[in-house]
Structures are given as structure tokens and as C-alpha cells.
Design goal:
The protein is an all-alpha fold. Helix content is 81%, strand content 0%. The chain contains seven helices and no strands. Helix 5 runs parallel beside helix 7. The chain is flat, with a radius of gyration of 17 Å. The two termini are 30 Å apart. The model has no long low-confidence stretch (mean pLDDT 81).
């Protein structure tokens, strides 16, 4: 089947990168883990594009779409964690402001992924994250705007 022959090498590479990322993060090699994570994200984008070009069924592509959505959000969170871990002061902006900035970045990426990769369900995952944050920060009204935007785009 073309979907598997066209993607087997990049699939094995992505699996190796996933394991490496988990181990480097677990043992607190944070800078190395970010390098591995970005490489893993790129490998998943390449894998997803190759799969889409091979006319896969929904059950063939869905696990990769879900994984790509997860690693996209995890990358943003891990970058923020590493910056905080190494004492970055965030240009004296509050944590709430940086949360909003990261969510705007994540929303932008979700929209880009939706239209450039036709990524199945990616915007819905980020919309879920934003709605959970909105419950935690009820005065943060921007969450409803981003969530509504993503809901509209995901249709």
C-alpha cells in the first residue's frame, strides 16, 4: 500500500525522535529536549504531508493528525517551561500576559495547519485547551474570542 511504503522511513524516524524527546525531558536535559522536540515536530509534518499525498483512509491518517496536534501544543508549553526554568523574566510581563501571547501563537499555528495541511481536528484540540484555561481564568475574556475563532475555522 502506497501510504505505508511512502512513509516508512520517516515514520521510524518520528518514533525514534518521540522516544528521545521523552527521555531527554524526563532526565531534565531541557535544551536538548527542545531540539529533539522541534525535529520531531518537523518529522511529523513531513510524515503527515506524505500520508496526505498517498490518499489515506481516515483511520490511517487520524492517529498522526492527533499526534501532530498534541506535539504542536506540547512544544509551545515546553518552550515556555524551559524559558521559566532558566530564569527568563519575560520582559517583565506577567504570566497571564505570556499565557495570552502563547495562546495567540497557538491559535495562529492551528489556523495555518488547518489551511496548509488540512489537519484533521487540530483546531478542536487547541480550542479545548483554550476553554479549559478560560475556566481557570474567568476574567480572561480573550479566551472566548480565540475559542470562537477556532470553532469557526474548524468547520
Amino acid at each position: 500500500m502506497p501510504v505505508y511504503t511512502n512513509t516508512s522511513i520517516i515514520f521510524m524516524l518520528s518514533g525514534l525522535l518521540n522516544c528521545t524527546w521523552i527521555l531527554t525531558w524526563h532526565y531534565e536535559y531541557f535544551i536538548a529536549s527542545l531540539a529533539v522536540m522541534f525535529t520531531y515536530l518537523i518529522s511529523l509534518i513531513i510524515l503527515y504531508r506524505r500520508m496526505k499525498n498517498s490518499n489515506p483512509g481516515l483511520l490511517d491518517i487520524a492517529p498522526f493528525s492527533i499526534n501532530l496536534g498534541w506535539i504542536s501544543v506540547a512544544t509551545i508549553v515546553n518552550v515556555a517551561y524551559v524559558l521559566k526554568e532558566y530564569g527568563w523574566d519575560g520582559f517583565d510581563l506577567s504570566g497571564e500576559i505570556w499565557t495570552a501571547i502563547m495562546l495567540v501563537v497557538g491559535t495562529g499555528l492551528a489556523i495555518i495547519f488547518k489551511f496548509n495541511l488540512s489537519l484533521f481536528g487540530h483546531t478542536m484540540r487547541l480550542e479545548f485547551v483554550i476553554r479549559r484555561l478560560q475556566r481557570a481564568l474567568p476574567t480572561w475574556h480573550m479566551g472566548w474570542l480565540l475559542s470562537s475563532l477556532l470553532h469557526h475555522v474548524s468547520r
